[in-house]
Inverse folding.
């Protein structure tokens, strides 16, 4: 992508994130680095999808934020609700796409010559480059679906159910699904798919038509948000506060402790506190569902990576 376009847009997004406090300082640095990597791709699609995802995600976070803050609680003892996103969260959502961009650069170098990008997507001129680009688009279709599903689904008037057992669970439970959340996820995936199709150069006789690309990406994104729920239901511990009945969230998507002094090797944690902010409070928190294996960021990265690879495999199968 041309630097004359990417640089000012990146600066505008950095200023927006700083003024609206949607990212932490390290989160802003991580986002700027990610944007720089995406801008090195010869196609404008990776950089545009990154910006689209950022705007969709931050907008969804702000929707009825005051209401969402009352539905869960923070492990610090304060009201819940998504705060400024951290650098770990940025990399969890965009890390796999960044790796695919860097892989494209490693294979073909930086530039706009015919060796680095196909004249027409899916025309067979550069199959590997097209498949890598499809993996990047699949990444953002999935993370956009998951983000909107989480941020807007929690506002559902109906109580969510655990995807594995259909047991009613409190809002914010890992693996909890609702019709409103599912619909929001499909909408987020469709938004990324439509943006991708608008920017793709698809020629007659190619292995994928624009309508096929839209349906494929929307399907992959929808499957991604369901996969995230499954992974969350099995591999994430949803901690509930017995006194309030609310799900306890760790800042920045980290794990929540249920036992004073508990620690997880290699993972940031937040100490348990009681209702008055004192560390090592009473044992009022219990795991309501799931297993304490991964935190939210690790699940997001795993899901995005699986769906990116899934998009590449699907493209290969269609091509074949």
């Amino acid at each position: 992508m041309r630097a004359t376009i990417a640089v000012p847009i990146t600066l505008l997004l950095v200023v927006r994130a700083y003024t609206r406090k949607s990212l932490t300082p390290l989160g802003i640095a991580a986002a700027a680095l990610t944007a720089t990597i995406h801008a090195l791709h010869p196609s404008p699609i990776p950089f545009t999808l990154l910006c689209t995802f950022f705007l969709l995600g931050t907008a969804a976070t702000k929707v009825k934020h005051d209401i969402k803050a009352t539905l869960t609680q923070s492990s610090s003892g304060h009201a819940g609700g998504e705060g400024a996103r951290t650098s770990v969260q940025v990399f969890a959502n965009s890390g796999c796409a960044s790796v695919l961009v860097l892989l494209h650069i490693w294979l073909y170098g930086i530039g706009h010559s015919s060796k680095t990008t196909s004249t027409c997507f899916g025309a067979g001129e550069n199959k590997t480059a097209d498949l890598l680009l499809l993996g990047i688009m699949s990444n953002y279709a999935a993370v956009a679906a998951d983000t909107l599903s989480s941020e807007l689904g929690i506002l559902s008037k109906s109580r969510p159910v655990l995807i594995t057992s259909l047991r009613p669970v409190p809002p914010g439970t890992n693996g909890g699904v609702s019709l409103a959340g599912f619909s929001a996820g499909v909408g987020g995936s469709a938004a990324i798919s439509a943006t991708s199709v608008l920017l793709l150069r698809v020629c007659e006789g190619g292995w994928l038509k624009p309508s096929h690309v839209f349906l494929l990406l929307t399907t992959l994104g929808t499957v991604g948000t369901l996969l995230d729920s499954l992974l969350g239901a099995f591999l994430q511990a949803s901690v509930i506060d017995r006194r309030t009945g609310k799900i306890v969230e760790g800042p920045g998507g980290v794990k929540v402790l249920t036992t004073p002094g508990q620690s997880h090797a290699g993972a940031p944690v937040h100490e348990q506190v009681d209702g008055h902010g004192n560390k090592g409070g009473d044992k009022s928190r219990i795991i309501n569902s799931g297993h304490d294996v991964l935190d939210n960021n690790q699940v997001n990265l795993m899901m995005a990576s699986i769906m990116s690879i899934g998009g590449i495999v699907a493209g290969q199968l269609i091509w074949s």
Q: What stands out?
A: The chain has one domain: 3-319. The chain has a mean pLDDT of 85.
